[in-house]
Amino acid sequence: MPRLPTVAIVGRPNVGKSTLFNRLVGKRLALVDDRPGVTRDRREGDAKLLGLEFRVMDTAGYEDEDPHTLPGRMRQQTEAAVRAADVALFLIDGREGLTPLDEEIARWLRAGQTPVIVAANKAEGNAGESGRLEAFALGLGEPIAISAEHGEGIVDLFESLRPFVEREEDEFEEEEDEEDPGRPLKLAIVGRPNAGKSTLVNRMLGEERMITGPEAGITRDSITLDWEWNGRPVRLVDTAGLRKRAKIEDKLEKLSGADARRSIEHAEVVVLLLDATRGLEAQDLRIADHVIEEGRALIIALNKWDVAEHASSLFNGVKRALEEGLSQLRGVPVLAISAKTGKAVDDVLKVAFDLRESWSRRISTGELNRWFEHAVDANPPPAPSGRRIKLRYITQVKTRPPTFVVFGTRVDQLPDSYRRYLLNSMRRDLKIEPVPLRLSFRAPKNPFDDRR
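RE: above sequence
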């Protein structure tokens, strides 16, 4: 797997480097205190920012001291971090403005080969705007305003970092192609008690691996099994039956249910098994909705088809009920199977691999924005109070599930119906299988917006 791009956070003491580091890695890994000099060694962590993934380094505050002193040795560590990084994020205190030490750090950064982004921190509201404007004098490009503590300016930070840390499309595709042959399909079987989950697992494995019987709730723990289907690796998870939470009083059943829900969170594709002799119930829709909310690909399998009555009307009725009950994801595959006889069990695996491929799909930026321009031209966004909402471009920030961000102005006024239009158009025009898609809208903070 290619190494992640690296971002080194640098600056004088007490400008908020560790606070920003903690925000980017999503954990309080670095100690934070009002006193300067808390950080001494380089600390590294895996960061995520609106789908961008990179390695981030928190460095000691840069001080102009003798190399043999402790501050001097700390500075040498900082210099080594910047040399090794793909980009340096130079933090200044936006409220305090430039200091002579900031200017000294800027001279050192300008003399190096590492690209530099200047960020005026502690700029919540417009508090750091004067400091940001002062930072133009450093000669390191246009500064951005952020607040590491309050999470402001994240979109501007994303746009500034993206050219340096976003890997090329072919690198993503190469990485995924290399992983596909040996990467097991993570497949979870879920459903209400006594739907036949363990029987289906046994049929897939070709052996009586799981205990089965007419009693409901035999399976308590989520059991993970590694096997192969037609030479392709599968990590199969059999889970406990999921009843409506209000009906659960037994502590062990509560734990089993929580374990099953964790299995959904770690799966790639989830098979929701229904008992065809009982049809679709409200609890089935609740489970399906949870799977979709977690961003997992979903298959509905109607089990016990060999003993179902009025099969054709039952199948059509279930499909209609799913279209109404799961309006956020239409077209979920529905298969009629029999775990007991083996009917259509192979079809479940084939559809699961196909869905996993679509769930992992990355669309090239060019293709995505050609579609986006056409979709916006065909149906422009509304103009609330006569003020145009301008959508500039779209980018895919991650896969599994496919996740997209649209950048534009006044996107907070965009109605949900327009978001649904874009998602439906994307599925249709880009031929995306019925897997969950995530779409959000971002607008860079404009300090003059409040003055209009």
